[in-house]
């Protein structure tokens, strides 16, 4: 255990901290490595395959267009023609996806649903980045954001760019405090949006 603590301390370049802090910082560093974007890989295998690899590596699941079952296992990603499998839905429940990995989403054109639940690394910057991706502005129809403690009103408001968004569920987001402002913003910008709020 001491050896592991020393290795994680060296890898993270940290000062000497209690074991629990070393472990937390080590996992944060490892999660950042999992989120690193390999642009050459995206060119080689295409955006859907590269995004699938990123999402599954981080603990999320994906569902492909025309398929019922969710892809959960990185080692069983489908093979075959690279353009055959298009991501239709993403469930990032309990995953370690973070802002630095969101460039993986840039080339996706068929994503209709995204679920972010208990994502500890998701922050306002992530939702702002998501809202600026032109392909996702057109394709996303449904979003659920649940128990992501770093999300505030600023991040939620950025979703108004998703011009085809039909359903948005917001639940257990302690950083979201101006519910009435959100309701008014979405009524104005996305009048056909079904907005479900379960916020305290």
TrEMBL record:
<keyword id="KW-0472">Membrane</keyword>
<keyword id="KW-0460">Magnesium</keyword>
<comment type="similarity">
    <text>Belongs to the ATP synthase subunit s family.</text>
</comment>
<dbReference type="GO" id="GO:0005743">
    <property type="term" value="C:mitochondrial inner membrane"/>
</dbReference>
<comment type="subunit">
    <text>Homotetramer. Associates with ATP synthase.</text>
</comment>
<dbReference type="InterPro" id="IPR032675">
    <property type="entry name" value="LRR_dom_sf"/>
</dbReference>
<keyword id="KW-0433">Leucine-rich repeat</keyword>
<keyword id="KW-0375">Hydrogen ion transport</keyword>
<keyword id="KW-0813">Transport</keyword>
<keyword id="KW-0677">Repeat</keyword>
<dbReference type="GO" id="GO:0045259">
    <property type="term" value="C:proton-transporting ATP synthase complex"/>
</dbReference>
<dbReference type="GO" id="GO:1902600">
    <property type="term" value="P:proton transmembrane transport"/>
</dbReference>
<keyword id="KW-0138">CF(0)</keyword>
<comment type="function">
    <text>Involved in regulation of mitochondrial membrane ATP synthase. Necessary for H(+) conduction of ATP synthase. Facilitates energy-driven catalysis of ATP synthesis by blocking a proton leak through an alternative proton exit pathway.</text>
</comment>
<keyword id="KW-0406">Ion transport</keyword>
<keyword id="KW-0999">Mitochondrion inner membrane</keyword>
<keyword id="KW-0496">Mitochondrion</keyword>
<dbReference type="GO" id="GO:0046872">
    <property type="term" value="F:metal ion binding"/>
</dbReference>
<keyword id="KW-0479">Metal-binding</keyword>
<keyword id="KW-0809">Transit peptide</keyword>
<keyword id="KW-0066">ATP synthesis</keyword>
<dbReference type="GO" id="GO:0006754">
    <property type="term" value="P:ATP biosynthetic process"/>
</dbReference>
<protein>
    <recommendedName>
        <fullName>ATP synthase subunit s, mitochondrial</fullName>
    </recommendedName>
</protein>
């Amino acid at each position: 255990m001491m050896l592991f603590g020393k290795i994680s301390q060296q890898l993270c370049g940290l000062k000497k901290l209690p074991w629990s802090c070393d472990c937390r910082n080590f996992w944060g560093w490892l999660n950042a490595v999992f989120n690193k974007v390999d642009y050459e890989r995206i060119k080689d295998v295409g955006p859907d395959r590269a995004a699938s690899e990123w999402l599954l590596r981080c603990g999320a699941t994906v569902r492909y267009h025309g398929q019922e079952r969710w892809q959960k296992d990185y080692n069983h990603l489908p093979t075959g023609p690279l353009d055959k499998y298009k991501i239709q839905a993403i469930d990032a429940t309990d995953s370690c996806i973070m802002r630095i990995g969101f460039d993986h989403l840039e080339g996706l054109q068929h994503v209709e649903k995204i679920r972010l639940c208990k994502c500890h690394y998701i922050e306002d910057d992530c939702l702002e980045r998501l809202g600026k991706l032109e392909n996702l502005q057109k394709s996303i129809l449904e979003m659920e954001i649940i128990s992501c403690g770093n999300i505030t009103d600023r991040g939620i408001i950025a979703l108004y760019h998703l011009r085809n968004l039909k359903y948005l569920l917001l639940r257990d987001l302690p950083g979201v405090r101006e519910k009435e402002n959100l309701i008014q913003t979405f009524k104005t910008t996305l009048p056909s949006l079904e907005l479900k709020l379960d916020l305290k």
